[in-house]
From TrEMBL:
Organism in which the protein naturally occurs: Blastopirellula marina DSM 3645
Keywords: DNA-binding
Matches recorded under PANTHER family: HTH-TYPE TRANSCRIPTIONAL REPRESSOR NSRR (PTHR33221:SF4), WINGED HELIX-TURN-HELIX TRANSCRIPTIONAL REGULATOR, RRF2 FAMILY (PTHR33221)
InterPro entries: TR_Rrf2-type_CS, Tscrpt_reg_Rrf2, WH-like_DNA-bd_sf, WH_DNA-bd_sf
Gene Ontology cellular-component terms listed: cytosol
GO molecular function: DNA binding; DNA-binding transcription factor activity
Protein known as: HTH-type transcriptional repressor NsrR
Organism ancestry: Bacteria, Pseudomonadati, Planctomycetota, Planctomycetia, Pirellulales
Keyword DNA-binding among UniProt keywords: yes
Amino acid sequence: MKLTTQTDYALRTLMFLATRSDRANVANVAQLFGISVHHVAKVVNSLAKYGYVRSIRGVGGGIELARQPREIRLGEVVERFEGSTHLLDCIDTEDICAIQSFCKLKGVLAEAERVQRAYLDSVTLADVAPTSRQLQLL
C-alpha cells in the first residue's frame, strides 16, 4: 500500500501537534515540513471533521489535538483518509474476475491486508510522535 499525500500530511500534522502543549497554526505545520499552507489547511479541515483536531478561531486560536495521542490509532487515521486500502478490487467486489470463485490469491492478499491493519491499529500517535526537542533541532 502506498499512502496518498493527503494521508501523509495528516499523519505529519498529528505528529507535530502531539509534540505541542500549546496551540499551533496551519502555517507552523506547513513551514516545518516545507509544504503548502493550502494543503495543510485542507488536511486540518478533514482532521477536525474526523474528530482528531480541534480548530479554535479568533485571538489565541489555532489548532490542537482533540484527543490524547495514545487514543489515536494509526490504522484508523489511514482508513479514514485512504478509504479502501484493498490490494485488489476482487477482495471486496464479487464477480470481477473469471477465476474469483477458486482464486487463492484473493485470500492471501485479504490476509495481508488484515495483518497490516491489525498492526497499524496497534500503533498509536504517542508511539510515533517525535519529541518537541527533536523538532526544535530542525
